[in-house]
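Technical appendix A lists one of the benchmark inputs used to test multi-chain prediction within the project. The record comprises two sequence entries:
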Amino acid sequence: KNEVEQSPQNLTAQEGEFITINCSYSVGISALHWLQQHPGGGIVSLFMLSSGKKKHGRLIATINIQEKHSSLHITASHPRDSAVYICAVRANFGNEKLTFGTGTRLTIIP
Amino acid sequence: DGGITQSPKYLFRKEGQNVTLSCEQNLNHDAMYWYRQDPGQGLRLIYYSQIVNDFQKGDIAEGYSVSREKKESFPLTVTSAQKNPTAFYLCASSISRGRHNEQFFGPGTRLTVL
């Protein structure tokens, strides 16, 4: 079982829909990251959070430490949101490396 | 503009040849990282460096080598010992390797070994 599991693996939605991408992890963490990878391959960091909720524009990230679960929400989705969204966690023990999920491929249809 | 550059974007090499991937950052970050991305898998850490002239193996270091002679540069050499080198390679950096530090990623290099 992977330490970081994302669901769904693929998601297709119509423009304007509310999007939710989920991330579950199995280890104690000090921080969780949400990243966006566009078709060209470059990765942009969207959020880093260790508790509660963060909002940036139409993007909202939440985390529940007790349940070891995080969600990334996109409101009023747009075709330019089409990308792969990656969850990564930093363990709070050992060498504190980032462990990455396999990503959720989001496609927004106009 | 501050950022991380990787070159080239696409690289083709014959089997058995060593190849070096470039990574440069002008963010004045101490820590730098190399990751490998394969289809259907999460990013995996190859090597990381916390400071100049120091680097540590990650989870999949076999067949790779790095150097950190300058703060802004962290080149990765894919050697002929790497059994399956075709992959997408991402470089990242952070202010330091502390647990609350965000990592910034470069655009990546797609290596294809023929």
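The radius of gyration of chain A is 13 Å. Chain A touches chain B at residues 2, 4, 30-31, 33, 35, 40-45, 48, 50, 86, 88, 90, 92, 96-103 (CB under 8 Å). Comparable benchmark entries are summarised in Table A2.
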